[in-house]
# Entry
Amino acid sequence: MSSELTAANGGTSNPAPAAPTSASVRYVDRPDMVETFVDSVTGLIFDGQTLRIEFGVTRLDDVKSNAPVTGRRYPACRLVLPLAAAADLINRMQQIGAALTQAGVVKAQRPEATPPKVG
# Structure
């Protein structure tokens, strides 16, 4: 070890610190946190590092006789998840989807048949 490094750490040759261990993180509820109602997913983008989800809420215009129903969709929440949180969300949504399918609330989608390749 060079004398510069030895002098920098107080004159001893301590080994490098060990890799950090996983932290023990405790969940703390915030009952005052506002909930956001959404009725649609308006955007979903994964850029390789983060998953960005935009949720929207639909507001119908006043109904007029003999006129088509119209409305507007507004962004209500933009959620950005790092890769680990996105993977966790996907896994949890798959579990919920399986439970809803088993309960008969939703029907399992069959994979679409792929046409045979020619050539």
Summary: The CA atoms of residues 19 and 95 lie 33 Å apart. Confidence is low (pLDDT under 50) at residues 1-11. The chain is about 20% helix and 25% strand. Residues 83-102 form the longest helix (20 residues).
